[in-house]
Amino acid sequence: MTLSTAFTEMFGVRYPIALAPMGGSAGGALAAAVSRGGGFGFLGGAFGDPEWLAREVPIIAGTDSPWGIGFLTWGIDVAAVERALEYGPRAVMLSFGDPSPYAERVRRAGALLILQVTDLEEAEQAVDLGADVIVAQGTESGGHGARHGRSTLPFVPAVVDLVDPVPVLAAGGIADGRGVAAALVLGAAGALIGTRFQATTEAQVAPSITKAILEGRGRDTERSTVLDIARGSRWPAKYPARTLGHPYLDHWRGREAELAADPQARQNYQDDVARGTVPPLPVWAGEAVDLITDLPSATDLVPALAAQAQEALTRAGRR
Asked: Which of 45, 61, 117, 168 has a beta carbon 3.0–4.6 Å from 122's, enabling a disulfide?
């Protein structure tokens, strides 16, 4: 069984399912497992740490499957992109920030350019920059996203219509095959999935993170800048993060400016992490976390998602 789309044809993969390049958790083992399963594996390159890339790239490159690297656009420089391109990825994905300094360098290297967008203005810019694929990220997504973004259901078709004929991947709130099917019905050429792949045997996450995701509920997620401020993160405030509940969210909700101005409060956070009072990292999780109840290999998960999607599409057709 295959679900052929413009994305599968462009990348030579069996299923229209891509791993979100989650910094830290989307390492070589996870990306390789997704590729072996018939999807497209992205490494979570984040800020382009050279030691991390040197360790993780050979794992995915050894699969002889197409693969890519994703970066946080606001936190990289030209050197990071050029260093990654030396490994020969099939695609480079840029998210959160102005991708214009890097677009032409990616194309010159022969890699496909994938740009994630969170509003229609960014989508227009992506077209102008010659993006080969555009990822439309809805606000249900785990991790960072637009403060004033739109939900996946209305946002994806708006982007599809605006950027046609550029293929679009839907992202945000997709954790099973029904979500993949919905993305295809909305006009997307596939789905970019994050939280669901964090709960797999190959993800680079601590057991406590896995446990939290398996037990988490969508109603427990919250989009906020509190934890970035407490951690001293450099994430731009325009991109708050959706996480599961956290004691610091409860204590500082609505008092972000006060927290930012209080160095002792931020030191208290570090002390609490050292004591184990709070987890060392926030638990990034999207609103579809309720749908995640098991811990499979990503290699098995990809075709399972595709089969669920096909079943959902067939069932909808009968109706």
From this structure: 117
3-class DSSP state for residue 54?
helix
pLDDT, tens digit, 9 for 90 and up, residues 169-218: 999 999 999 999 999 999 999 999 999 999 999 999 999 899 999 999 99
| Separation between Cα atoms, residue 47 and residue 75, nearest integer Å | 6
For 295, half-sphere exposure in the C-beta direction (CA atoms, 13 angstrom radius) is 13
pLDDT tier at 310 (50, 70, 90 boundaries)?
A: very high
Report how far apart, in Å, the C-alpha atoms of 245 and of each of 56, 103, 205, 227 are. Answer: 30, 37, 18, 11
Full-model pTM: 0.94
Q: What is the pLDDT of residue 2?
A: 65
Q: What angle do CA 18, 10, 80 make, to 5 degrees?
A: 60
Query: Does the pLDDT of residue 318 top 80, yes or no?
Result: no
3-state secondary structure of 93: strand
Residue pair 263/232 in contact by the 8 Å Cβ criterion: no
Backbone φ and ψ for 195, nearest 5 degrees, come out as -55, -45
By CB atoms closer than 10 A (0-12, 13-18, 19+), residue 78 is: exposed
185 near 208, Cβ under 8 Å? no
Query: Which two three-digit tokens encode residue 317?
Result: 């057709």
Give strand ranges (E) for 80-146: 91-95, 112-117, 133-137, 143-144
CA pair distance 302, 311, nearest whole angstrom: 14
Percent of the chain exceeding pLDDT 90 equals 92
